Amino acid sequence: MEEKVIYIAGLGLIGGSIALGIKRDHPNYKVLGYNRSDKSREIALERGIVDEATNDFKEFAGLADVIILTVPIKQTINFLKDLATMELKTNVIITDAGSTKGEIVDAAEKYLTGRPVQFVGSHPMAGSHKSGAIAADVNLFENAYYIFTPSTLTKTETISELEDVLSGLHARFIQIDAAEHDRVTSQISHFPHILSASLMEQAGDYANTHEMTNRFAAGGFRDMTRIAESEPGMWTSILVTNKEAVLERIADFKDRLDSIAELISHEDEDGIWNYFNNARLTRKEMEIHKRGGVESSFDLFVDVPDEEDVILQILELLRGTSLVNIHINEENREDSFGILQISFKNAKDLEHAQKVIAENTNYKVTIN
Amino acid sequence: MEEKVIYIAGLGLIGGSIALGIKRDHPNYKVLGYNRSDKSREIALERGIVDEATNDFKEFAGLADVIILTVPIKQTINFLKDLATMELKTNVIITDAGSTKGEIVDAAEKYLTGRPVQFVGSHPMAGSHKSGAIAADVNLFENAYYIFTPSTLTKTETISELEDVLSGLHARFIQIDAAEHDRVTSQISHFPHILSASLMEQAGDYANTHEMTNRFAAGGFRDMTRIAESEPGMWTSILVTNKEAVLERIADFKDRLDSIAELISHEDEDGIWNYFNNARLTRKEMEIHKRGGVESSFDLFVDVPDEEDVILQILELLRGTSLVNIHINEENREDSFGILQISFKNAKDLEHAQKVIAENTNYKVTIN
């Protein structure tokens, strides 16, 4: 097997986890790393994430068969510019890990066209509330989408070569046009972050004059503002590099708010009912759609008393079953037991679980 | 102990659960029920939720010491009007369970003033994804807020008498002005439902022309649209009975969207950063605030591999510890293990758990 040299510029959570994933399937590959911070390089070397590390981006670039830029969007663009001036291996594959793709693909085409390199944009869709090389995890991308956005510098074999290099990440590789990637993610990620942050600020301001606001905030509000705790720097870069799509989503949403406000003003109960019902049906369809697709979800609900070790008792019954998620308290209650939601990988395990729990406990078991 | 007669009009999830809660502390009380549906009355009688049941609201009203209206908002108002024309026990306590309070309190004052009755509005803040007498649960309100909104028909002793009747619900009783209740809930519940439904509809429409929309929707989007699956009828009533506060929140939110759109248009990175950072700090403060309050939350994060029975293994280590919630996969990954989040009732249990897991596994353990 050919021994490749992989150069990962940026040894944070994403870069470090990619390095570990590459090594899982390709222990013979040499993985070189760049990071500005001494501490990050130290951790990456200690943990065996990389074989060698530098604080000078240019030092290893010429040695690499594959260069993966896992730095913030702006620095990614700066590095693409730098690479244009450097001696690189012929046919080196260059890719990145940015959350928006249009500006990065544009920059690659602008700076690297005419050079003997391949470029494809990448967006590995995973994250964590932790960060840094210390948090790097070989399983971070397991079953996550790893999106490739081709450029004019992408050759027929570029993506399959990269998929082979990254096979140990156990991700789901998928290709999509960069502009379309940015539009879709504006809708399902970037704009929702704006909504979440705006709702949080609104409630924060309201709490200044309405002191019960914080006290009564329950499950729904918590869910809707969870992503408002995301790292501001990354989201700032995302918004400025996906301006057009995001602004378009904001304008569209304001129209929707006007529509519902109009219905409320006129106390148009049928109209409001249809509004909510349409949203409900749309989400249910999305869920149903999931069942057939790759993101299958098979959920079981168990009513459990507020007693010690009740979850343990149920998990003991389910020993060996492929449960993929477990969650208590989705409802409007913050600190007592209630409904235990368990998700399984397939219908067979779901049915088995339902049977076992019904036979061995007197808890109510429901399938959604 | 005095034997009271309690009349619960509406034997759904809320009414049924209140009945069961009353009986837990007052097995000697006589609980009478009303429901239009034969099936609901049958279930309520079979399950011992009520002692007697009627399909004629007027039949039991005159027998009651306490009347609890647990029907939709409009029907609550109709029943208040009906009660004004009926022979009731002197000093009967009348209350309700509606999600908005202003219109109900107004109706009670309008129809019942001058009559020898007491009235206080109630909003028990709990719910479930299930409904009906079949789902009634004595623990539904455990630790949930049970809000009283006084009226001109509330006497000094009304609320304490009601708290005694309802003691078996194990809820947290609290008093607040009806109009203020409606303002606060517009911010933390009613308006967020509009946001969630609107985002869901927007994404649904977008998916028609951008097919990857459903595919890439991940944790954040799911969280933000979960409440879009709520029952449309109830939310329609809530919006039309809390029109003013909700419209005011919509208008305020549109201004906030304008502000962030302006920042994005001008690529004002500092401004955007501050916007996100402010939201993040506001939410973090809210969380910190929780620690000292009744809604304490002590969270532990464990990195777990995608292996069978790994949660079981951890819960076995924690046997006897007061864990209150457990959750996998808060992050941007839909169907593989990752970070297991376990919440405890107090700092002592949290520290104990951290120690035990660190000593007995090689999983990374973090305290947030």
Short description:
Two copies of one chain form a homodimer. Chain A is α/β, with parallel strands linked by helices. Chain A has 14 helices and twelve strands.
Descriptive notes:
Chains A, B: This is Prephenate dehydrogenase. Chains A, B: Residues 4-294 form the Prephenate/arogenate dehydrogenase domain. Chains A, B: The chain crosses the membrane at residues 6-22. Chains A, B: InterPro entries: 6-PGluconate_DH-like_C_sf, NAD(P)-bd_dom_sf, PDH_C, PDH_N, Preph/Arog_dehydrog, Prephen_DH. Chains A, B: Its EC number is 1.3.1.12. The structure is a homodimer of 368-residue chains. With 368 residues, the first copy, chain A, is α/β, with parallel strands linked by helices. The first copy, chain A, folds into three domains: 5-176, Rossmann fold; 181-289, 6-phosphogluconate dehydrogenase C-terminal like domain (6-phosphogluconate dehydrogenase C-terminal fold); 298-367, ACT domain (Alpha-Beta Plaits). Chain A is 49% helix and 17% strand. Chain A has 14 helices and twelve strands. Chain A has helices at residues 13-25, 38-46, 57-61, 73-83, 102-112, 158-165, 178-209, 212-216, 219-225, 232-240, 243-265, 269-292, 310-317, 347-360, and strands at 5-9, 30-34, 52-54, 66-69, 92-96, 117-124, 145-150, 172-175, 298-303, 323-328, 339-344, 365-367. In chain A, strands 3-2-1-4-5-6-7-8 form an eight-stranded mixed β-sheet, with helices on both faces. In chain A, β2 (30-34), α2 and β3 form a beta-alpha-beta unit. In chain A, α4 (73-83) packs parallel to α5 (102-112). The longest helix of chain A has 32 residues, at 178-209. Chain A is globular. Chain A starts with a strand and ends with a strand. Chains A and B meet through α7, α8, α9, α10 and α11 of A and α7, α8, α9, α10 and α11 of B.
